Amino acid sequence: MAKRxxxxxxxxxxxxFLFFFLFSFSLATNVSYDHRxxxxxxxxxxxxxxxxxxxxxxxxxxxxxxxxxxxGGIDVIExxxxxxxxxxxxxxxxxxxxxNLVKFVKIxxxxxxHLILRxxxxxxxxxxxxxxxxxxxxxxxxxxxxxxxxxxxxxxNFTTYIVNMMKRExxxxxxxxxxxxxxxxxxxxxxxxxxxxxxxxYAMWAAKMAVAQDIGVPWIMCQQYDAPxxxxxxxxxxxxxxxxxxxxxxxKFWTENWPGWFKTFGSRDPHRxxxxxxxxxxxxxxxxxSLNNYYMYHGGTNFGRTSGGPFITTSYDYxxxxxxxxxxxxxxxxxxxxxxxxxxxxxxxxxxxxxxxxSLGSLQEADVYTDSSGGxxxxxxxxxxxxxxxxxxxxxxxxxxxxxxxxxxxxxNVAFNTAKVGHQTSIMEMVPEYLQASMTSPxxxxxxxxxxxxxxxxxxxxxADFVKNGFVDHINTTKDTTDYxxxxxxxxxxENEEILSNRNQATLVISSKGHALHAFVxxxxxxxxxxxxxxxxxxxxxxxxxxxxxxxxxxxxMTVGLQNAGPFYEWVGAGLxxxxxxGLKNGTVDLSSNAWTYKIGLEGEHLKIYQANGLNSVKWQSxxxxxxxxxxxxxxxxxxxPSGDEPVGLDMIEMxxxxxxxxxEEIGRYWPRRSSLHEECPSECNYRGKFMPNKCSTxxxxxxxxxxxxxxxxxxxxxxxxxxxxxxxxxPTKIKFSRRRTTSVCAHVSEDYPSxxxxxxxxxxASTKKNIATLHLKCPEGTLISTIKFASFGxxxxxxxxxxxxxxxxxxxxAMVEKVCLNKKGCDIALSKDNFNMGxxxxxxxxxxxxxVCS
Length: 855
Ligand code: GAL
Known about the structure:
Jelly Rolls; 31% strand; Lectin_gal-bd_dom; signal; apoplast; carbohydrate binding; GHD
């Protein structure tokens, strides 16, 4: 009996085993490629991919971001892996909070999307030290990104660690997971030669090491012209239509299509027009591309001290299709969504037919794809930057705006033109709210919070770290455990020096390798200086007040994000190189080789007074009138969350420079540093012609970054502890939380451009009743159209937020739009004679512009 039971158990076990084996086997996805595309389970694929970096938002935002990407027509989420966020010291790993990579990948998987894992582990990415841990630079004998044993050892270690982690979770497509591609290294081909003899062997080693990881899906290397088989070399640029991979057996992939650009403190705000992003994508697919990844699709935030640089801002908004706060940026997001729909309608002929190129003019051409089942798709482009053009294609005339591509999924009807933005626009605002004392705080009767104030001493606090004649390098000394390093010295002034008379002041002259400096003499701030995104070195020169006898010079040197790219970038230093006092009787005193006393970091940082368990380790002075313009000051307030549930930005416009935390979470560096008025900001952005980051900038003379994202999930219902460290002086009573929300939405439609739902494309092409142009308006979730601010059918001018009526205007417009749209989530209005006076101003091309308020 026992024996029978035993064999039954074995049989049961066998069946279970078989079931699991078959089950997991059947879930596995086969990913390969040919010259045309990635092949997933035997099917060629056109893929639209979106970079969303997990540590640049918080886990609470991930599902929403991924959902918004999916709704935008995205199939794949792409992320780098951030080595220095994970391997905090050799062999000591962290995967919690924003660094929970497994959780992020699971959310992508649950959304039914694919994932591209760019392991790097060097990533650039405007991320501190390009993602490589700072400790690795101090492992003796290490040189990054070349044929160097310690570097290769640690790189292989980390890559293997991540690969094994992904394997354990069955995340590779070959195991049934979402990962369809993985990347090793990053844009090394661009600098390989500069590394001399170590360059090529390193690149080849990296490729081989990656392939040996046996992940069952292809590897890619971006901007790696010599990527060896089977690794696919891919393109990163503003345009990749002219790119060809290094083998006829590899598909044409675009890993970084930059739909905007990043910002540096003290510079303008770059914007890339949606028409040009769409043009670049359409050209890429026209010319045989099959995978396009937007870098970034959601840029997010460089929380804490994660931003690279130097000088990369805390915001990494990137002018991306989803804004820093997680809200779809319109019209960019919507324009690209429609583009994606149009491209997907072409998928079959594009992937199964060879293209025929037709020249339609000197700068106009069509690429026509026909498949064996009779499918036909065409891309007709006009590369002329100035002129529109009417071209003839298969005996039909097509009007092409300058610098645009028309997509014809059936070789007849235009589904989309990259220069005609049909999607609605929105205007966002930051609604300010002064800080409110928390209900749990002792002073709940007053609304403005009481402040706790703690002022640090300028110079050495506690015991000095060391004394040395001359200067040390800032980064080699702090090892990036903090932004701050004090350099202090003293010198004597004779009683008979004329500079003591106040009429002839002495001058302090300092040179630094970077990045920023506040100079104190006898505990008083004399001035500040800093480099910029182009050149981190700087000079400081300021008159100073000295006293007879001993004068104390305390110089606070700061880094603002470590170098993140470039050949041998890890050797770029920072800190003081020369300090002199001019104007003394004997001329100039050079203090550079003095005995300098050093202190790493701030007292408040050492005591962690921004965290719950360190908060009480200093004596905060409690006041409802905190000091203003006082350097080296810590401020603390217990506050309520701002009302509503919109995303929150901390408004630091009246503050100087420093760091901020909420409930111990690092908001990051703030610095409302103004950009120079000498920079150029065009009054209008011309989308035509090649884009460069400085082409369509805004914000000349304005603070580069005023608001700092504080994720909603960091707030508690009450008793939130906001801690600020202000370096040079500001007014904390002016700090506000601002809620980000949509003020108005605008939509327009013109008689000559039918805007239709691409989802109903087959119905549309089959119907004879074409060209009923229809305006679509939609409010954000949870809001209704409450006011029609503007509506004009005729020849209105201006743009969203500043429309005005033209000479031709149907006076019934407002009443008509109000009737259809008020108190609705959204509405559609056709340009038909039932709705408008279509006979108005004969001969003129009329349009309808609407601005509505959602609340
Ligand atoms: C690329 C790099 C990215 C990012 C980008 C600019 O060269 O691969 O990581 O730095 O430039 O945003």
